[in-house]
Hints:
Helix content is 73%, strand content 5%. The protein folds into 2 domains: 7-33 and 228-265; 50-226, CATH 1.20.1330.10. It contains 7 helices and 4 strands. The protein has helices at 7-32, 43-96, 104-124, 162-168, 172-226, 230-256, 261-265; strands at 128-129, 132-133, 140-143, 150-153. The chain is mainly α. α2 runs antiparallel to α5 (172-226) and α3 (104-124) runs antiparallel to α4. It has a two-stranded antiparallel ribbon with strand order 1-2. It has a two-stranded antiparallel sheet with strand order 3-4. The radius of gyration is 39 Å and the shape is rod-shaped.
Amino acid sequence: MVINTNISAQSSAQLLGQSSMLLSKSLARLSSGSKITSPADDSAGLAVSMKLSAQMARIDGATNNVANANSFLQTQDGYLQKVSDALSRMSELAVLAQDVTKSSSDQALYQQEFSTLGKYITDVATKDFNGVSLFNGTTLNVTTDSDAHTFAMTGINLATSTTYTTAAGDNVETNATQALTDVKAAITQLAADRASIGSNMESLSYYSNQLGTLKNNLSAANSQIMDVDVAQESTNYAKYNILVQSGTAMLAQANALPQTALKLLQ
Length: 266
């Protein structure tokens, strides 16, 4: 029997240290909700999780871009609905101006209203959305995924389109027939423009749904790597806690063993 080197105590202390470390890790996982609390827990899993998290952040950015583009389109269509009402009234005025029972003063009143509506259409052509022109005809490229691929959103041209400017500048007092022809052409163009906006909205809706589904799938994959299984980890915590308590008790016993050597000296 030796007293300078207590192998039992050293072994117990080593095992107790290991159990204490595992208990600390289990406690950190339960308190944080994360399976990986340090790179040493799962270095490869952490690397994959970081890339998935970055991709999800980019998806959030693309989702915001798509939502803002959709708001842009809704604003466009809101204005065009009013332009449609204006053109409809202008076409009615062009027909009313051709009434042979109307005097020149009546026709002048029709022209006054016609001109006012034309100015409204011209004014709408200058509107913008957060500093971006709504109706200059520019095609806008909308980011639609995490790799910055884009969707070409066809522009609407009210500012320089001769179809609209000609109708807005007509005179029902002097040439109601031509004014009616031009307004009808503008209505046809407006129908095509609103159909284009509707097509853009539909496409962006598909992209938005796609982004939402992709983010959900990536979140589920990341959860498998990072999120702790509380039931399993609670079992581990209970086990390590028992090991620490029993290890502490056994270390105390191992430290007491050299005292038996005193009996040999008595």
